[in-house]
Amino acid sequence: MTTAGLERRGLAELRGPLAFVEGVAGIAFHEFVDLVGSDGETRPARVLSTTERGAIVEVFGVTDGLKLDTSRVRFHGRPMRFGVGPELLGRVFDGLGRPRDALPPPACVERRPIGGSPINPCRRAYPRDFLETGISAIDALNSVVLGQKIPIFTESGLAHDALAMQIIRQAHAPSVEKFAVVFVALGLPRDTATRYLDDLQTSGSRGRLIAFLNLADDPTSERLITPRLALTAAEYLAFDAGYHVLVVLHDITNYGEALREISAARGEVPSRKGYPGYLYSDLASLFERAGRIAGRGGSITQIPIVTLPSGDLSHPIPDLTGYVTEGQIVLDREIARRGIYPPIAVLSSLSRLMADGIGEGRTRDDHPDVAKQLYAAVARVERARGLASIIGVDELTEIERTYLRFGERFERELLAQRGNESRTIAETLDRAWTVLRELPRTELTRVRDKTLEKYLAP
Amino acid sequence: MSDTAGQITEISGWVVRARAATPLALREVVLVGHERLIGEVIALTRDEVTIQVYEETEGVAPGDPIYATGEPLSIELGPGLLGGVFDGVQRPLRKLADEEGDFIGRGQRMTALDREALWEFTPEIESGRAIHEGDVLGRVMETPALAHPIVVPAGVSGTVQWIAPAGPRRVADTIARLDDGRELTMLQKWRARVRRPVRERLVPDAPLITGQRVLDTFFPLARGGTAAMPGGFGTGKTVTQHQLCRWAEADVIIFVGCGERGNEITQLIDELPRLVDPRTKRLLAERTILIANTSNMPVSAREASLFTGATIGEYYRDLGYDVLLLADSISRWAEALREISGRLGEMPAEEGYPPYLSSALAAFFERAGQVVTLSGGRGSLTIITAISPPAGDLTEPVTRHAARFVRTFWTLDRQLAAARVFPAVSTRSSYSETPAGVTSWWSSNVSPQWAATREEAMKFLEEAALIEETARLVGVDSLPEREQFVLHLAERFQEDFLRQNAYDEDAWCAPARQMEMLERFMKMRREGVAS
Q: Considering only CA atoms, which of B302, B362, B301 is closest in space to residue B327?
């Protein structure tokens, strides 16, 4: 028995984004339904739980103004789907996948359930192909590989938008032709979203871009659908059409808050800070859609942007994101205050998949050693700075002062770069050597002798 | 075997309720909906059954049927597990991929053990012999390095009327017939949540060598012991777990990827068939079993995966082997428990976790141990779990409860990880309640000086930590020369001893070499301090 095509007039209850439908038997779990108000507007909705008497549905749209008796519920008898195909490229959609660019809906080759299915771990291909962002702090010290998921942890007022746009413009994989970007706005202010679109249009990246925009004043509950539409599109491009797809999800904090809102409306038992106990699994159901599949050409790389609520890294959203993703790129207010862009905190950032994606035959033979040496040296810089702030620079040892000088040059010459400057990995590593020469050779303990011989002499 | 046993009345995520038409048993496996998804009865009232479903329930509707199987959820045990990759309810993932492709679908039921594979069986008893549970009937070579004894299942005894002659057999073929007509095969089934019986539980008397200096030397783990490794994200839990999975000295290693990343499991699947066991010179894949229930696979099966792993571990223990079970991570398991409990509408205790979190953890950890098996042999199951405490907070419920049941506690430190010192095991907040047997093992097998040298090193590290605190306030130059020396030596000790590269020949360090390095450092300390 299926409910496909069935329509019912009248609701039993409306509470925030939730609606209660009664008197319909056989409503399937996670079934896709339409809720139509007396205004004639259709709001998509999904079944959250179902019994013989009826179901609770979450409505992806505005429920204000709906009435119990005049609302109609239309059943589809199947989960929510999204039409995918090559025509998606270059298009802009709203948070529910409807064209926002005044063009007719794109032709699709297939309509797919938006929840996706887990990739069988036996069929994943381990990511190890370097993705060049042209940004030294990322490419040298937190190298990203195709198929990785790595968030940007940031705070309000930091340059994450400029950085994300720069990554979108510049990201490319050497020797890869089919490259696409899926930009997903989750609760972004309109002007920010517009800036992204304008930037991408003028930079000529448009043809390889798909945008899904759920804006700050769009319904909160819609936010739970938007990333799943986008990832369904990305999966098609990556695993059917062979594209290397970069998915930017901005901002996951807004997504988490939408999840909390729905959970609270359902009266669920909260875990930390009111977020539902399944926040981790829910985030994983998005982030785990990144990856590569053996024998299929493309890949999905995800860069979610997470605004830390009041800069708190231990907040449930960044914390659980960090547990699912493969590293993190952390932006730091103090570095930004020194006028450095991009303000990437080298030591608290991490790319878990870096080790297998760099080195001879991938980036350059000296890359692993250079990265290790830079981490060690930057750790010494931090210690020396901490000490200097207590006892004063004059009291430092000679080598500690050398590290302070190194720290200066590292930030100015390697970390900092212009917003439109794209450096090849070779340029980045050459710059790294220039600043490493500030240190005496005896301090370069993390670099193998043969590498030192090859690169240290100017 | 499956008649319609009732009708579904309610679906909420992994929890399905139904009206039963035939009596069902608690913990019985039922198949749910037209797609026949795997489920387990977790509560019964006179007119309603509650079922935990181990697959996605999308599309299941009230009114759909459920089917009884008459069997409890059980784990298949026998030759053919080694080298396998299974999900949380022991579905073979490689075979699943062959049948349905790159993505995991639903309603696919297949046996964990390949029914067609042939094993060269060699009988070890003759007909007419009286047998009891645990007795060895014969054996097969499961891998070139591991002989797999075929034993009489628990609770079975009788007189052998017929035993299969040497030759190739399938797991489900009869290999022995008893006088009462019962037939025995190489395949056994055991309920995942029930401990397997042993003759006697022993006090652990030897260390499980991991090849990791900071662990073996400072915070040793006993064979048959339990360890927890809490660490915030980015502190290297997974890399350390992978290190142990590769190099720990055990005959069989079971890695349970419990709610973690897909790429990490893939990394193990990729590299284990290429790495060589330094002791047996065989491929590591041949001694390893992977249980993968990644974070985006069904949460309910994640909850089951720990017990699936423990049951397989106990089975190889009962065959007389030293088994190591690694679970990454029990925090994700506890979250699964919490989610199911929430869907059942149970009253939560701390942070939404159910009140039985502690007893469920205890039930898992208590499956570790060194034992005398039913056949009189020796075997052990050691358990190492990673914990992912929210915000790195060690006072949260899962860490706190686990700490009550484990004897070895390896705390991973964010500052060490940020300085890229791996394994990032904090020497100040880790501990090991080392049994006397471990100390005497080191004394008799490595050096009689072990305990004393280790104690000296611990004091040295503590002293260095205190000096460092002072140095942070006044600068190194202002310290007395002796303290500067200790600090300098401690830095080198961290660099050369505590730090261990997971990716080169340093990845595994033999106990004798560990002791040698330690002694050299302590000698430098004595000489340096004296001058």
A: B302
Q: Tell me, yes or no, if B10 comes closer than 8 A to chain A by beta carbon.
A: yes
Backbone angles phi, psi at B14, to 5 degrees: -80, -5
pLDDT of residue A265: 87
Give, to the nearest 10 degrees, the angle between helix B511-530 and helix B481-493: 170
Domains of chain B with CATH codes: 4-73 (2.40.30.20), 119-189 (2.40.50.100), 199-332+361-432 (3.40.50.300), 450-530 (1.10.1140.10)
Q: Looking at the partner chain, which of A113, A296, A395 has a beta carbon nearest the beta carbon of B477?
A: A395
Q: Is the pLDDT of residue A205 over 70?
A: no
Which contiguous run of DSSP H or E holds residue B285? none
* Other CB atoms within 10 Å distance of the CB of residue B436: 10
Evaluate whether B253 touches B326 at the Cβ level (below 8 Å): yes
One-letter amino acid of B354: P
Query: Which residues of chain A lie closer than 8 angstroms to B474, CB-CB?
Result: 391
The residue written with tokens 């797609």 in the block is: B35
Whether B254 contacts B309, CB under 8 Å = yes
Q: Given 3.40.50.12240, 2.40.30.10, 3.40.50.1820, 3.40.50.150, which CATH number is that of A82-351?
A: 3.40.50.12240
Q: Read off the pLDDT of residues A230-252 as tens digits, 9 standing for 90 and up.
A: 999 999 999 999 999 999 999 99
Whether this model's pTM surpasses 0.90: yes
Q: Are domains A7-79 and A82-351 of this chain identical in fold?
A: no
Is residue A21 within 8 angstroms of chain B, CB to CB? Answer: no
For an interface test with B, give the residue of A22, A47, A56, A123 to mutate (most B CBs within 10 A): A123
Give SS3 for A436.
helix
Pick the CATH number of A7-79 from 3.40.50.11900, 3.30.360.10, 2.40.50.140, 2.40.10.170: 2.40.10.170
Statement: residue A204 has pLDDT above 70: no
As for the ipTM of the complex, it is: 0.89
Instruction: With CB atoms and an 8 Å threshold, state whether B269 touches A25.
Output: no
Backbone angles phi, psi at A66, to 5 degrees: -75, 150
Residues in chain A within 8 Å Cβ distance of B335: 277-278, 280-281
φ/ψ (deg, to 5) at A28: -80, 150
Neighbours of B347 (CB within 10 A): 8
